[in-house]
Amino acid sequence: MSALTTDDTSIPLPAVDLSKRYVRVTGQRDNGFIEFEFSVGWQELVVELILLPPDFQAFCEANHVEMLPPREDEEED
Residue 14's closest CA among 44, 38, 48? Predict the structure, then answer.
């Protein structure tokens, strides 16, 4: 029995550029941690991360990220 099968009915995915990295800041905690979304290739597929400001800055520089604006549905603090 094969653990992995393929067929001709696979869903076509849009092209992706894995060199594109995006960050969207979603908040800052009282203890200083920055909450943000990070994505590679597709802006819609994200992981949520939390870092202290110096680590956040280093992360953004190391990944050459493009900063995205806040989502329109997020309320301003």
Answer: 44
